[in-house]
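Archive transcription. Copying these from loose printouts into the bound notebook so they stop getting lost. Printout 1 of 2:
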Amino acid sequence: MEYIQIGKIINTHGLKGELKIESWSDFDEIRYKKGKMVYILMNDEYLPFKVRSFRMHKGFPLVTLEGIQDINLAEQYKNCVICMNADDRHALPKGEFYADELIGMTAEDEEGRTIGEVVSVEETRGAQKNLRIQMAEGKEFLLPDIPYFVLHIDPEKRIIRIHMDEGLL
């Protein structure tokens, strides 16, 4: 089974075993729907849990999982990554991509010259995502993931065509 990381358990909430999650997903309501399976990565092992409840509180998902009924049981999972089965990922509309689909793509300028490789997609609170592009000599730069800079994505050829503005590097 292939897993996709969807967040990190950053704390507990209350006494009844709620987990406070730093979300890495745009679809928390879907990921943590009652009855869905999630996996906590602990000591290189994926531990399966069924979601009991989900709610948002101050911008963070609060999730309870079957088998974790109180704070004492929940504490051990702090700082663990929470994952989902890759087969449970739903299709995005045409032209939209999951972050892990962009990682490893070749970034080219408007003339088709290779600039580098996308090594990560970084979230920003309240703003667009940024693509971290590593150039051949090891230098990295951030490119805002907006239409002005990201001109075209070709998933078959694994190429992202970008606009290089003066001052980006």
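Printout 2 of 2:
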Amino acid sequence: MEFYQIIKKPLITEKSTLLRETSRQYLFEVDRRASKYQIASAVESLFRVNVEQVRTLIVRGKLKRVGKSFGKRSNYKKAFVTLKEGNKIDFFEGV
């Protein structure tokens, strides 16, 4: 897989902002088939930083109702990427 296929988008929430400021962790939505090693190498090559640790989880989609019918949002995989001391991703600064 290409690096741009592994990392789908950054997750910018209140929790991710707090984690970024306190513990050098960045959140990304990643491809469901990607391994931790692939995620780490994709972040290192795309943002030119050193990755210390990658933790992943699968977020289950919520059930949503529109009128009488029910639908379900898609499941997706979330990655918590911890960077080594002194590294940061400038993409998130100013957001």
